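Researcher: Re-running this chain for the archive, since the previous output was lost when a drive failed. Same request as before.
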Amino acid sequence: MTETNFKVALLSGAAAGVSVDLSLFPLDTIKTRLQSQQGFLKAGGFRGIYSGLLPVVIGSAPTAALFFCTYETTKTMIRNTMGENWATASHMMGASLGEVSACLLRVPVEVVK
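Model: Regenerated structure tokens:
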């Protein structure tokens, strides 16, 4: 993988992680409050639905970036080594190794969160 492709994967992954959290974090907060035994309004209602977003974004950007960098690197290495006949396997191995590497970072971030 070229240096340019690595940078693109790194920045694209970080942007994807931040985008997902910015859009889904408030929905997750609302869902949690709806499930609260106190009731939705006593649990906070719609106030502060972005409260606590910063630690999540700080953790998700590098996690998603790590996934995409690992995925792209693995996919490229397998295709360069084994040939285009291994295209499907390169995607599967890239995604698997990408998820394993991302989990090495994601799990400690979730524990802290």
